[in-house]
Amino acid sequence: MRVALHSEIREGALDLYRERHLRIPDDLVAAFGRLGIHDWTIWRSGRRLFHLVDCDDWDAAYAALPQEPADQAWQRDIGRFVELFRDADGAEGTGPLELIWDLAAQRDGGR
Q: How far apart are alpha carbons 12 and 16 in whole angstroms?
């Protein structure tokens, strides 16, 4: 499954955020693999960040991440740069964004 997330970066934190993402810790990459997270990309527009996550089960992975020592360390570091996450309605929260349209699904006879 793919999910999209939306977060906002703190004012003045972009350069350090970019630097931290040049290469995330290997133990975090390994944790993602154990939890079924296969890919994660991040795009930026101003202070808005858009994440696309390819995973087996987002809810299960998101619930398990806080128990991973690698993610705990990562959140202590990267959390300094992230203002907040927003859900599909723009409220504060980490719910995935609503999928409106998917070209590949349409080609395959779906939506």
A: 9
Average pLDDT over residues 85-100: 93
**Coil, strand, or helix at residue 5?**
strand
Considering Cα of 4, then 6, then 12, then 17, what sign does the dihedral take? Answer: negative
Rounded CA separation 33/18 (Å) = 22
Give the mean model confidence (pLDDT) for residues 44-68: 97
Pairing verdict, β 37-45 and 82-86:
unpaired
Closest CA to 61 of 24, 92, 90, 96: 96
Report the distance separating Cα 48 and Cα 62, nearest Å: 21
Report pLDDT digits (tens) over 16-41: 999 999 999 999 999 999 999 999 99
In whole angstroms, give the CA distance from residue 17 to residue 82.
8
Q: Please name the amino acid found at residue 91.
A: A
Q: How confident is the model at residue 110 (pLDDT cuts 50, 70, 90)?
A: low
Token pair, residue 88, equals 């599909």
